[in-house]
Amino acid sequence: MTETTRRDEIAAGLAEVEARVAEACRAAGRAREELTLIAVTKTYPASDVRHLAALGVGHVGENRDQEASAKARDCADLGLAWHFIGQLQTNKARSVARYADVVHSVDRPRLVAALGAEAVRAGREITCLVQVALDDDPARGGARPRDVPAVADAVAGTGGLRLGGVMAVAPLGEEPARAFARLRQVAQAVREAHPDAGIISAGMSGDLREAVANGATHLRIGTALLGHRKPFVR
C-alpha cells in the first residue's frame, strides 16, 4: 500500500467517525465542540500518526510505553497532545512523564506519587484521569468506584499533576449505556469535590454513541479510524 492510498484510507475512516460522533451529539442534544477525539494508534506506525495530524487530528493515544515513547520522539515536530491510556506500572512513570500530556489510567496512590515525582523532575505538568473499574474488579486496571475519591484527592494534592477527571472502559458483556451511566455518577462526585475535573474519557469504536449520551468528553477511537488491516510497527 502506498502512503497516498493509506492517507486516503485514514481520511475515509476519519470522515465516517466524525459522522457518527455528529449523529451521537445530535441524539444527545450536545454540541460537537464538547467532544475531543483521541486517535488510538497502538500497533500502527508513526506514518499513520502523521497522516492523522495532516487531517487535523490533534490528540493521539497509546497504551504501551515502549511504542508510545518512540512515536512521540518521531512525531515531536507535530505539536500533538499525547494520551497514555494503558495500564501503567510505577517503574514506567519516568519514561511516560517525559512525553504524556494526559495519563488516563491513574488508579492507585503509589502511581500518583511516582508520576508526580517524575513530572516535577521533568519540569512538566501532567493531566491525570482516575481510571474507574466499573465491574468493581481492579485486577484489570482501575480503582473501585468507592476508592476513586481518595485517588482523585491524591492527584489534586500532588505537585506536577493536575486532576482532569475520570476514565473507564465498559465491561465486557454489559450494556455500555448502563456502565457509562454509572461512570457519569462517579464523575459527578469527583466534580463536586474538584470542580475543574470535568473530563470523562469513555467510548471507543463500538460504543461511542452510548458514551456521548452519558456525558463523555473524550472518545478513544482506534479501529474505526485505522481499520482492521494487519498492523505493523516501524
TrEMBL record:
Entry annotated with the keyword Cytoplasm: no
Classification of source organism: Bacteria, Bacillati, Actinomycetota, Actinomycetes, Streptosporangiales
Keyword Nucleus: no
Protein name listed in UniProt: Pyridoxal phosphate homeostasis protein
Family recorded in the similarity comment: Belongs to the pyridoxal phosphate-binding protein YggS/PROSC family.
Modified residues (N6-(pyridoxal phosphate)lysine): K42
Pfam assignment, any one: Ala_racemase_N
Keyword terms of this UniProt record: Pyridoxal phosphate
Free-text function comment from the UniProt entry: Pyridoxal 5'-phosphate (PLP)-binding protein, which is involved in PLP homeostasis.
SUPFAM superfamilies cross-referenced by the UniProt entry: PLP-binding barrel
Highest taxon in the source lineage: Bacteria
Residue stretches making up the Alanine racemase N-terminal domain: 30-229
